[in-house]
Each structure stands twice: as C-alpha cells, then as structure tokens.
Specification:
Elements: H1 2-22, H2 26-29, H3 32-40, H4 44-53, E1 67-68, H5 77-87, E2 95-96, E3 98-99, E4 111-113, E5 116-117, E6 125-127, H6 132-135, E7 149-155, H7 161-170, E8 176-179, H8 196-199, E9 202-206, H9 217-221, E10 226-228, E11 233-234, H10 258-261, H11 264-270, H12 303-309
Amino acid sequence: MATLQRNAQKLFYYARNAVRDIAPQAMFRRRLAGLLDQARFSDGSVRARLNYYNRLQDPFAPSAGAVPVSRMPRGRSMYYYDLKEFARYFDPDLRIDFEFGDVIEVPAMPSIVKDRPIAGDNRNGVLFKLNKFRHFHMPADDIAFADKLPVAVWRGELTNPIRTLLLEAARDLPFCDVGTPKPTAAPEYRKSYLSIDQQRRCRYIIWLEGNDVATNLKWIMSSNSLCLMPPTYETWFAESELVADVHHVPLEPDFTDLPSGCNISNVIRLRPSVSLPPPTPIAASSPTNGPSRRSACSCSTSTSCSAARSSLIPRSGVLSQANPRRPST
C-alpha cells in the first residue's frame, strides 16, 4: 500500500510540474512583485532562514557556464522541476549557476546546490530545496518510543568508508541490526532490505552520510525514534542547526561509544515524556565481556523488549520478514 501511495505521489509530482511548464510563463512572472512584498514584510524568522541558505555578502557575476532560466537542462528531471518551480517567476534571460546531484565540495562560483559541507567557508553553496520528493519524505510515525524495539538499526549502500566501519564496529553488538541489502556486498555485511516503516519500529536509527547527505535524516527526525550520529553536510533542512544531545545523540567516528549512545540515559534526556520500566544499562562491548542479550535491552520487563530479545541475535536482522529489494540511503 505504501509503495502504491508513493508511486501515486510521484505521478502527481510529475504531472503538476509538466502543467507548470506548459502554462504561459508570463503568468508566473506577473506575480513576482507581490510574492517578494510578502517576503519583505514577513517576520524576522523568514529573513534569518533566507540568510542561512544564502550566505553571500558581496556582488558577483555569473560564470561563463551559467545557464539562462529559459534553457535549464532537464537531464535530472526532479532537480530541474524543483529549481524551475521558482526560477520561472524571474526574467527568462537571467543566468543561473547550479550544481545538480551530490555536492561534495563547495562550488568555486556561487551556485545553487542541494547540499554543502557544514565546516569551513561554504557561502558559494546557496542551498535550495532540490530533489525534495526523495529527501523530504517524512511519513507520520504512529509508534510511541516505548513501544518500539530496543534496537539500533541502519540500512544503506556502502558508498562511504564510515558505513563499512559501522558494520565492523557493530558486528558483535546484539542490540544492533546494521547491514546493506546490496547483493554485491561482502556476505558478512549483507542484511535484508528494511522499509522506512520497518526501521521506525526500532528505538534507535543510525544516520550515516553516503556520497553526501543521506536521505533518511528527515524521516528519522520526524519519527518517534532517536537519531544517532551528527551530520557533516547540510541541506534545506538546516542540519547544522541541529544540536547534539538535544536533537540527536552524537557518536564517535570509530563508533566505540555506540553502546552508550543507546543507553536509557539518552532516552530520558532526549525523550523526556517517555515512560519506561526500570532500566538495565547497556554493557560496553569488549573482547572478553560482550553485551549480553539482556544488557542490550534498555528496559527489563516491557513486552516490546521481551519480544525483541528473541530477534536481536540472528545475523539475518531483527526484522526477518523484510523484503530484500533496495537500500535506504
């Protein structure tokens, strides 16, 4: 049902944008002055947010490769439609520099981008809400935190060495269900595919960047689960404004603190409204004293934990009914 609904949403997305392209573009341009007035007289939070996305301070000239609004390429259609949705309100001869796709480094020239590195001088990357159908899919989560499985979960492709490092670090942690559904991956890394709904059945969801920003951060943050790992790239979602130990639990780059990241103390601090049974601390993993099935659980008597204990150990994953189709990146 979820897949059918998502496909219907995608069809509507393309149909709506195709109609916008067919419509007389002058109709949009006539509305520009009124829309800018609305923005000009809005409260300070709107201006602050715009200044966050666009940090340019000095005048500049477009590069020699800048493209007129009327001739923007459609090769990456969702990127094209998301930018054209607003660019069509301006003079069609105005030229734009943009970089579609994953942006690893800050552009040499001021350019519209989907994401940019958080660290350093990133002002040449002007953030725009691009590829939003994929990146800003945030379905409602109906499962309360206390009713979720006491498991840390991750699924994705191994497009970044840090993801492989996680699989190595979490291999012997029984409260972790991490892996990649990619059939070409090494056997010890492979796990069955998990949908968003299946991953949100777990209390802890690990967020790891791939080529750049990972797509799952938005739906993790909108869920009732707890996000583990800080971002290093930012998008329209304003990831650099997320506060460690307020919005997410940070992890060390080598994941040695992963057991403590799932500790009940983090739950109490970040999910203060959660009511859980008396906690059983998560044991730190060591070559001689790995975490037991009981210590992997942050509560000792709840029904959800009892049900989860039987599924923490199998290498096939805690949610064995998953359909191995595609990774969630």
